[in-house]
Amino acid sequence: MTEVKKNKRRDFLQLSSITIGAVGTAAFIWPFLKSMNPAEDTLALGTTEVDISDIQEGQSITVKWRGKPVFIRKRTQDEINLAKKVDLKVLKDPQADSKRVKKEEWLVLVGVCTHLGCVPLGQKLTDSKGEYDGWYCPCHGSHYDTSGRIRKGPAPTNLAVPPYSFLNDSTIKIG
Amino acid sequence: MKDQKESKKYNNSFLNWIEFRLPIISYFEREYGDYPMPKNCNYFWSFGALATITLIVMIVSGIFLAMNYTPHTDLAFDSVERIMRDVNYGWLLRYIHSNGAAFFFIVVYIHILRGMYYGSYKYPRELNWILGVFIYLLMMATSFMGYVLPWGQMSYWGATVITNLFSAIPIIGEGLKTWLLGDYTVGNATLNRFFALHYVLPFVILGVVGLHVAAVHVHGSNNPSGIDIKSKNDTVKFFPYMVIKDTIALCVFGVLISAVIFFGPNLMAEVDNYIPADPLVTPAHIVPNWYLAPFYAILRAVPDKLGGVVLMFGAIAILFVLPWLDNSKVRSCNFRPLYKWFMMLFFVNFFVLGYVGMLPAEGTYLLIARIGLVYYFGFFLIITPFITRFEKPKSLPASISDVYLSSAK
User: Are strands B36-38 and A171-174 parallel, antiparallel or unpaired?
Assistant: First the structure.
């Protein structure tokens, strides 16, 4: 064999062993990384059913879904009107109120501030509801309106609406 | 290999036996006995030793706490209360560990500021500085995860806020956060893994400390005048001179930390952490530990989520490149009439940032945090690189021994 041919063969062997080694290492690391993701039993904690027949107009309740608080508010007509008449152009995360509810009076939200995950105030009657009469996050001062949309403060997006459905007039299934 | 003859270096035959097979005796003699220290080092040079000792105390007290702690969301809070009430001397172990963490940061901050003021990060000690910043980063991660373990309100919400920082990263953020937590919220999976990592990271820190010390021993320690060692006259041996000096420093440190452990063990604790974690109620003010507060102030000073997170991590990352931002050949600020005052102001500014980081982010406090943020980055990106164009350093002394003799007069 000539010197050049020999070197080419050497290069090929080197390159292919490094490649195989790298792929093998990556395949070995994968299960370890993957094990840190939510486990099957965590994922299985899917749905929560809530009885909403006792909730009065203007009242809110907090239920737990997937370890997070979910706000269910029966809005007053004033609150609904307030949420509807907002010009979408002034919103940081523009979304019409009608896109955020299934029945006008029922507002269902994940009660976790989209900034850094605190639970906003506004559920209790004595709580500060913020400048837009919805919710106010005390951690870093985000204000949400009566549709749970971000109006002022560092939070980047509106309070999330979880997947939910009305099983009948008095029961909501979240998840 | 040819057999070497066993040397008879030491009088003790056992030491000779060890030395021939593993030359650690001569290693320790060289690095911790005869190691030349500049004569003019002041007590600021004791803080490296203090930090190492504190790390050992933290590891030992932590291991004994772990023997009685349960990393489960239903049991963690009660197991900590059991340590405080029922376990023999459990209260002492826990107060040593919690206050030890605070004092570890005090000592390390003084150590870092000493390195900055006297230019210890400059050629040829850049790698040493980088290893130090790594230690600092690891310390922050470790203390954060340790703070979560008692599973009080501040533990839970601190963990929620900090892990949510990662969700600010575009596209992968939300997935990364879930991966870190092992759940959609801070939960049992999170507590469990934080305990595992909190247990192992101190040993990683210990390893990096080993490299950090080995690296400084290559070119020798810096000193208050920032000039190189030129002759034997410039130095004293580590043993006994530095060992005795560090021991005195340790005694003073011991008195201070004991005073806090025994007379004010909760001085640096947040009362809210004595309320068990409640995922449905956020405390009115989420307060970070004071030693992380300067960075928290930077995070809150920015009215944009991603921007705040980027600047907060940037504030730490910028430390890595400090040796290349500062192009002055003069190490010690003692000989830099202008930079000296900017450096002092930087220290004050860091302290002020920490102070406002623990207060609500509104009104004047927010304004102070923003000014502090501007100075923090301005110091590194504008003052440090460009001051050399205006500053005339004082003339450096000829040798360390000259400095030593003139100060002895």
Answer: unpaired
